Model the fold of this input.
Amino acid sequence: MVPARPGADARSCVRRYFSRWLAGLLVFVVGVSIVEVVVPPAVASAAEPKQRDPRENPLLPGQSTPERTSPGRTDADFASLTARAGYAGSRFDPVRSKLVSRSMFVEEWANPDGTRTVRQSTVPLNVKDAAGQWQPVDTTLVPGQRSARAQAQQHVLHPSVAGRANDPAVVAAEIEGKKASLALEQAADRPVRLGAIGWLQGSGVPPAARTTVRELKKAFGLNGNLFEDL
Done:
């Protein structure tokens, strides 16, 4: 038996390692060559919407309004709507109609023919007395018992008038404890006389103030006139 040479074993070992490395390299190269690379297709992104003013949009289609085929009536009879005792088209009778209910701004009347008439106003029609009963507004100005101011006999705003034209509160009103007053510019120190006719006239009150007081009178719903000529 011939003993192996020491160098032969080393060379044999190197050849085995080299053969294995070469075989592994071949397997890797072949595997890479047969792998199919799958690349997903690119997705197209939607374009950004264009900003548009809604007022620039076109009008929707429509149809034109047809013209009238016949003229309106001209023989209408409005005789039943004629004014009667201040109530247009009403069956109210100022003598025979009976008041059935009232509030500050509304009155309801029963007419002789069985119908009802409702009267509404933007100014007070009625005011409660000390007993809590509704009473008609009475705007007659009478001299005050405790002061020189003239006061309306019965009104929810308690309007009053001073005794002199240059009073800082020549016309005043009060409701629920809140007061308001009116002064006239350039008014003379003259007495104010109450009467059934006349206005804020004469040397005591400047002409420009008359319109102001007239509007205030309408707001209070005062009937008649506040002042007599000075």
User: Anything to note?
Assistant: The two ends are 167 Å apart (CA to CA). Residues 6-34 form the longest helix (29 residues). The longest strand covers residues 138-143.
